[in-house]
């Protein structure tokens, strides 16, 4: 499942540098997460680093983008970040 940044976001920039998949970007009003790149840190870390550093807890599971751990791992492998 991808993650979602809610409208409670204060644009503090804490999450931006934490995303190993470069899935977080600056939207029109708040930071947003590209669901095609978000693997919930599967392939990198045991926990979602953006969630861990968010001071106001505005990053939540994205209900419309549910994925299993296996699907997240396959997405991670498909991103090919190490050959970019």
Short description:
Helices cover 19% and strands 14% of the residues. By secondary structure, it is of the alpha+beta class.
What class do helices, strands and sheet pairing give? alpha+beta
What is the total tally of β strands?
4
Return the domain count.
1
What low-confidence regions span 5 or more consecutive residues with pLDDT below 50? none
Q: Name the CATH class.
A: Alpha Beta
Output mean pLDDT.
92
Query: Any idea what the radius of gyration is?
Result: 12 Å
Main sheet characteristics: 2 strands, antiparallel
Shape: globular
| Share in β-strands | 5-15%
CATH architecture heading: 2-Layer Sandwich
The helix content is 10-25%
Order of helices and strands, N to C?
Answer: EEEHEH
Structure overview:
- By secondary structure, the protein is an alpha+beta fold.
- It has a single domain, classed as Alpha-Beta Plaits, CATH 3.30.70.20.
- The protein is 19% helix and 14% strand.
- The chain contains two helices and four strands; from the N terminus they run E-E-E-H-E-H.
- The chain has a two-stranded antiparallel sheet. The protein has a two-stranded antiparallel ribbon with strand order 2-3.
- It starts with a strand and ends in a 5-residue tail after the last helix.
- 25% of the residues are buried.
């Amino acid at each position: 499942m991808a993650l979602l940044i809610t409208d409670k976001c204060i644009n503090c920039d804490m999450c931006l540098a934490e995303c190993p998949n470069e899935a977080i970007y600056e939207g029109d009003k708040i930071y947003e997460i590209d669901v095609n790149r978000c693997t919930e840190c599967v392939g990198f870390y045991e926990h979602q680093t953006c969630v861990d550093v968010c001071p106001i807890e505005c990053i939540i599971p994205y209900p419309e983008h549910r994925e299993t751990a296996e699907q997240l791992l396959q997405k991670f492998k498909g991103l090919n970040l190490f050959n970019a």
